[in-house]
Amino acid sequence: MSKPSAERRSVADEFAADITDTDAAVVIDPATEKAVAAYRIATEADVDSAVRRASAAAAGWANTPPGERAEILLKIADAVQKRAEEFAQLESVNVGKPIAHAREDMAWVWDVIRFNAGAARASVVPAAGEYANGSTSWVRREPLGVVGLITPWNYPLLMGAWKIAPAIAAGNTVVIKPSELTPSSTILLADIANQFLPEGVLNVVLGDSSTGRALVAHPTIRMIALTGDVSTGKAVAASAAQTLKRLSLELGGKAPVLVFADSPVRETARDLVAFGYSATGQDCTAACRIIVEDGAYEEFVEAYCDEVAKLRVGDPSDPETTVGPLISERQLDRVAGFVDRARKNGANVRVGGKRLDRPGWFYAPTVITDADQSDEIIQREVFGPVVTIQRGSSDDEMLAMANGVDYGLSASVWTTDLARTMRFTRELDFGTVWVNQQIFVASEMPFGGFRDSGYGKELSAHGIDEYSKFKHVMVNPELSN
Questions:
Q1: Which range has the worst mean pLDDT, 286-290, 303-307, 476-480?
Q2: pLDDT per residue as tens digits for the range 414-456
Q3: From residue 70, how far is each of 101, 119, 197, 464, 474 by CA, in Å?
Q4: 105, 212, 356, 358: least surrounded by Cβ within 10 Å?
Q5: How far apart are CA 345 and CA 322, in angstroms?
Q6: Confidence band of 311 (pLDDT split at 50, 70, 90)
Q7: What would the CATH number be for the domain defined by 256-435?
Q8: Residues 161-181: tens digit of each pLDDT
Q9: Which residues contact 104 (CB under 8 A, 6 or more apart)?
């Protein structure tokens, strides 16, 4: 097994390009619209080279004892933590995330790396024993081999850690492609990790959708883990079917938020504003689709709009900023289009509903009421600072409205009624259901969706299982002497 080398070429150097190069992927600060970096787009040959490096390292890493893998992961976590402010600044500039929020994200990054260090050493499989024909059986957990990881632009560092940590903890080698819009923190993460990992275990390719397609289609890759939109997930699934790759797909959501009259209405409204506009609404678990019990509807809408008015939109580097820009001009156009069509379709724009006249891709925090359940604004993921509020007359109606979309990633219930809590946590068809809270996750618990939100689990021991294969060994002792 090769040892890590401090002289290894950095990812940024490998894919360096000039900002003026028309063929380069240019990284833009969404708050200023100014270019901050540029990278060469990885070709099919680049992808093949990265896969070959990963394949060459696969056997040695697979045979590295879990305890040794864990020690390396812990060193990576410590190194990332020491450079937390540098990572936060990168995320803030690259994603447009308010610096206060970027700093809050950091602890989740090294926590998930440390969790997977421990999970690598705690395989839970059936006990060895005699289950049939007098033979002795046991189960081997083995890595898949080379896995391909494709991460999104909204949480590039955190999603990178969510995928890299369990993949290498399970003994796989990795080729990761971050979004071409937000590669900066992944580049730093990989350069830090490769100070401790053997050569070839963690590889990065920078590029656009053509690079992603080459990664998915490569015959040596045994699994693709993707966080992206539904259309991308379907395309990846179709391509992966040609080589029968394993898939883990997290494809976004349209989270229903069920607010009942027995909850403290104004406090709930305050909390839900924070959960609705965090990351400028560019969060697949954002509290973006609120359904309020009829008896509390008017009070809630008033309180909610009052709280939205307090949000501070502006420079992400300002610690007082609570809402930053959208990631790109394309995303700004997409969000504006959703709101314009909702308005034309008869919905009421209570707050916001416009682009902001300033440099950067800013859109005003927006609240929409009076939309029908079948409207696009209710049914499709906007992925921006836009929240809808609907009225529900009964538990049955609100449950039907909540489940009445194609997505199934996350939901929340705001109530003090235990019986209602038990019913809704059982009948809501979503991979995560929060009660009187939203967005929070724990490394020890699984995360992943149903239906159009994809399949597969991240976090928890299930995350290690996603990147593992299980082999049943059955031995007849009488013929083994």
A1: 476-480
A2: 999 999 999 999 999 999 999 999 989 999 899 999 999 999 9
A3: 29, 9, 11, 13, 29
A4: 358
A5: 30
A6: very high
A7: 3.40.309.10
A8: 999 999 999 999 999 999 999
A9: none
**Edge to edge, what strands does the sheet with 468-475 contain?**
129-132, 135-143, 468-475
Please give the C-alpha separations between residue 221 and each of 18, 53, 54, 147, 348, in angstroms, as whole numbers.
Answer: 31, 12, 10, 5, 49
The Cβ of residue 342 has, within 10 Å, a number of other Cβ atoms equal to 24
Which amino acid appears at position 343 of this protein? R
DSSP assignment of 68-111:
HHHHHHHHHHHHHHHTHHHHHHHHHHHH---HHHHHHHHHHHHH
Check if 307 is active-site.
no
pLDDT digit string, tens, across residues 22-56: 788 899 999 999 999 999 999 999 999 999 999 99
What is the chain's mean pLDDT, rounded?
94
Evaluate whether 11-251+453-472 and 256-435 have a shared fold: no
Rounded to whole angstroms, the Cα distance separating 30 from 211 reads 23
Q: Please say if the pLDDT value at position 2 is more than 60.
A: no
Catalytic residue among 284, 288, 381, 466: 284
Give me the catalytic one of 180, 250, 458, 466.
250
Burial class (CB in 10 A: 0-12, 13-18, 19+), 276: buried
Task: Judge whether residue 110 has pLDDT over 70.
Answer: yes
H helix runs in 144-199, sequence order: 156-169, 184-193
Distances (CA, A) of 362 to 75, 314, 315, 316, 465: 39, 8, 10, 11, 40
| Contact present, 225 and 148 (Cβ < 8 Å) | yes
Is residue 249 within 8 A of residue 236, CB to CB? The reply is yes
Is residue 320 flagged as an active site residue?
A: no
Which residue reads 């602890």 in tokens?
Answer: 107
Beta strands 386-392 and 366-369: pairing type? parallel
Under a CB-based contact definition with an 8 Å cutoff, are residues 168 and 69 in contact?
A: yes
What is 11-251+453-472's CATH superfamily?
Answer: Aldehyde Dehydrogenase; Chain A, domain 1 (3.40.605.10)
Contact predicate 221/147, CB 8 Å: yes
- d(C-alpha 454, C-alpha 315), whole Å: 34
| Largest distance between two CA atoms of the chain | 82
Amino acid at 116: N
Q: Report the C-alpha gap between 225 and 341 in whole angstroms.
A: 34
C-alpha 218 chain-centroid distance: 23
Decide the pairing of beta strands 146-150 and 135-143. Answer: unpaired
Are 412 and 424 contacting, i.e. CB atoms less than 8 angstroms apart? no
| Domain residue limits, the chain | 11-251+453-472, 256-435
Mean pLDDT over residues 384-411, rounded? 97
